[in-house]
Design brief:
The protein has one domain. The protein has 307 residues and is mainly alpha-helical. The C terminus is likely disordered. The protein is 74% helix and 0% strand.
Amino acid sequence: MANTSSTTLNWRILILLLLPPLFWAGNFIAGRAVSSDVPPVALSLIRWGLATLCLLPFALKPFLRDRAHYLTYRWHVLGTAITGVTAFNLLVYWGLHTTSATNGIILNSFIPFLVAIFGFLFYRQQLPSNQLLGLLVSLAGVFTVVSHGDWQVLLTLAFAPGDIIIFLAMICWALFTLWLKQIPATIDRTGLMLCQVLIALALLLPLYVWESHTTQVHIEHTKTLWALLYIGIFPSVIAFLAYAKAVTLVGSVRASVFIHAMPIFGSLLSSLLLKEPFHGYQLMGMLTIFSGIWVANRPGNIAPAKL
C-alpha cells in the first residue's frame, strides 16, 4: 500500500480536497432552509434517491463489475454505508432542529481529531507532529470564525440536546473515513458509492414510513425544490466521490483536516447568497485555517502522486 502520508498535493488533488467542504457547507445552508418543510428522514431519503438517479448512468457498470469485491469487503462496505451515508446525514438533519448552527460547526470541526484518535486506537496509525500542529492551528481558525473574533463567546455557549446528536454524527463520519481507507483503491469508487447508497435507501425506507405517520413533507415552494436538487447532487454525489478519492490518495487524517474549511465556505456562501456582511474576523479565521491545512500537508520525505 502506498504511503499516503507522504503524498504531495498537486492542483487536481487540492480541488478534490476542497470540493467536499464547499458543497457540504452548502448542504448545511440548504438543509436549514428546508427544515420546516421536509423532516429529517424524508430529507435523507429524497437526498439519496436523487443521488441514485445521478449515479446510475455511470456507476451501474462498475457496480456490477465489482459486486464480488463488495462481498469480500462486505463489513467495510456495510459499515461505510451505515455510518457515512445513512447515519451521519440523518443525525445532522435531526440535530439541527434542536441546536444552533454555531454549535454544529464547532462539533463538526472535531472530525479530524476523531479520525486521528480512532486511527491511533484501532489501527495504530501514527500522527506526525506536523499533522497534529496543523490540526490545532486550523481548529484555532475555526474557533475564530464561530466566536466572531471574541473567544470569550465560546465560554458563554450553551449546549442543547441536539449537540449530542450531532456529535454522534461526527463519530459516524470519523469511522466512515477510516473504514473507507480499508477498502482497496482498485475497487471503483462510483460503483462502491452506488452500493452504499442502495444500502442506505433500504435502511431509510422503514424509518420514513414511521416518520410519515407524524410529520408530512411540504414542497410547495420552488426554492424548496431547488434546495432538494442541490442536496441530492452536489454534497451527495460530487462531494462524496471527491472525498473518497482524496482519502485513497492522501490518507484519512490529511483528507479530514480539510473539513475545517467548512465554516469558511459557509461564511462565503452566506455573504453571496444571503447578502450577509463578510467581517475581518472571518478573513483572519480563513487565513488561520488554511495555514493549518498547509502545515498538516507538509510531511517529510514527500513523494509526488498522480491523479
